[in-house]
């Protein structure tokens, strides 16, 4: 089945290069040269993954991502020449699923697209996890505490699922990042701390004295089996 990717980037030459490379690999590339046009194309539907640049005229990529995440969980790979950690942190905080700095080979980009889509693909319906009052449905990529549905980004869901599968055990930072399917994305400790902090807030944990999702100093993170 042909996948449909949307590149939101003002670099027309890059769009032509990627379109020529991706087509034989069953990926059809649509292109928008600015954020407003990109959001309009997303609204039309039929897009499987968005490739999003940061530096663009008009709406920059981070603002496009904010608006996209306000209405959609569509997978997003940030594709930008600005490769410092601050940009990676901000993009991932806003809900990007992956991050690739330019110049990047089309082959690596294709691998990232496939990896992101595998992570969000539906799973078998019998994999539901229950940890205390927390219930996770991997097939629907949803989580709830009691009747309260958690509004999680793709990365937050993957982190929570990895921790829930190892509830009661301390999971190291590196292991958690890899288990969440982000082992090929290079970031510093602060990035993971930020996402765990956001996840903790959505779980309703007290940041000063968390009972559900604990930071074990020098070791990693632990999701309690019984938060009490």
Q: Top keywords for this entry?
A:
Arc Repressor Mutant, subunit A, alpha/beta, single chain, Rossmann fold, 5-stranded parallel beta sheet, 228 residues, 2 domains
Would you mind describing this structure in some detail?
It is a single chain. The longest helix has 15 residues, at 106-120. The protein has helices at residues 12-22, 35-44, 61-69, 85-93, 106-120, 154-164, 173-179, 189-202, and strands at residues 3-8, 27-32, 49-52, 76-80, 98-101, 129-131, 134-137, 142-145, 148-149, 170-171, 213-216, 220-223. The radius of gyration is 18 Å and the shape is elongated. It contains eight helices and twelve strands. Strand 6 and strand 7 (134-137) form a beta hairpin. 34% of the residues are buried. The protein folds into two domains: 3-120, 3-Layer(aba) Sandwich (Rossmann fold); 129-223, Winged helix-like DNA-binding domain superfamily/Winged helix DNA-binding domain (Arc Repressor Mutant, subunit A), CATH 1.10.10.10. The strands form three sheets. It has a five-stranded parallel beta sheet with strand order 2-1-3-4-5, with helices on both faces. The chain is of the alpha/beta class and 228 residues long.
CATH topology-level fold name of the largest domain: Rossmann fold
Overall tally of domains: 2
Side-by-side strand order of the widest sheet: 2-1-3-4-5
The oligomerization state is: single chain
CATH 4th-level superfamily of the largest domain:
Response regulator
Largest sheet features: 5 strands, parallel
Radius of gyration: 18 Å
Structural class: alpha/beta
Distance between the termini: 47 Å
The average pLDDT value, as a whole number, equals 85
Q: Tally the beta strands.
A: 12
CATH architecture field of the largest domain? 3-Layer(aba) Sandwich
Percentage of residues assigned to helices: 25-40%
Count of DSSP helices? 8
């Amino acid at each position: 089945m042909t996948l449909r990717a949307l590149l939101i980037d003002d670099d027309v030459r890059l769009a032509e290069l990627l379109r020529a490379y991706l087509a034989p690999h069953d990926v059809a590339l649509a292109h928008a040269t600015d954020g407003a046009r990109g959001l309009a194309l997303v609204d039309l539907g039929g897009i499987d993954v968005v490739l999003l640049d940061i530096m663009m005229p008009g709406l920059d990529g981070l603002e496009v991502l904010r608006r996209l995440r306000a209405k959609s969980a569509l997978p997003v790979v940030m594709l930008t020449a600005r490769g410092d950690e601050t940009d990676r942190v901000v993009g991932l905080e806003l809900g990007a699923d992956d991050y690739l700095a330019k110049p990047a080979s089309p082959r690596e980009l294709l691998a990232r697209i496939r990896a992101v889509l595998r992570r969000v693909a539906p799973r078998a319906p019998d994999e539901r996890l229950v940890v205390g009052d927390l219930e996770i449905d991997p097939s629907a990529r949803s989580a709830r505490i009691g009747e309260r549905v958690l509004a999680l980004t793709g990365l937050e869901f993957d982190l929570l699922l990895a921790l829930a599968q190892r509830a009661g055990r301390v999971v190291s930072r590196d292991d958690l990042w890899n288990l969440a399917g982000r082992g090929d994305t290079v970031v510093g400790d602060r990035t993971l701390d930020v996402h765990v902090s956001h996840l903790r807030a959505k779980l309703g944990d007290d940041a000063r004295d968390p009972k559900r999702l604990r930071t074990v100093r020098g070791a990693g993170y632990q999701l309690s089996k019984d938060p009490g």
